Amino acid sequence: MAKKKRPKPHEEEASEAWLLPYSDLMTLLLALFICLFAISQTDETKLTQMAQAFSSAFNLGGPSFFEGAGPSSTSSRDYLSSEDGGAEAYLAENSQLEAVKRNLDQYIEQNELQEDLSATMTEEGLMIRIKEKALFPSGSADLVPGVQRIGPAIAALVAPIPQRILISGHTDNVPINSAQFPSNWELSSTRALNFMKFILAQDNRINPARFSALGCSEYRPIADNSTEEGRTQNRRVEVLVERAVHLDKSDMQTIR
Asked: Whole domain around residue 155: which residue ranges?
């Protein structure tokens, strides 16, 4: 009797449907890593262009992941490149601060304040330095009458300009330990605060939101504390008119 042949089991071909979502996932991951790399760079123009390109490619009408990618434009400091006009903005602000410095230099010369007051242009902005004896008695944060020769002039100079103002107090490395000031930290901080409050009271055009006070104690010396002359230079109050426009280092080299 003939045996019946058993039917061969049906062999299904392996499905390749998984390749489509896999390739989409790999594409999205590549886009993500490129975006993260670009965010770490400082070229805002190129990053914005790239973000727009990704938005067009992956966005179908709804909110895009890449929307708003790039450095924030609301930062208190604008770091610009020469490509987007940063050099011109930097030079314009520099000319403005130089004009303020010239007016202050003229005031210093007319009032013979060379021993007490100086002004210097720095990378951070216009630095005004005032020696301790022109503002405070030794070991005290109470303003002396001589502050009237300096404070109102500085207030009049900074009132019409928009930059932020940082007032910092500095001491030498000789320890202080009094009931009012347990350390040089308290002394330098109170001096900065008292002088800032005096400046703010001089001109009603001044916006207090532009000002801040900082105590640095003995830790930012500008001279050697091992000599009396050096310690005298270190006991000071600084008024920094901070630049609003900053350039990349490569652009700074170009305009110098």
From this structure: 116-243
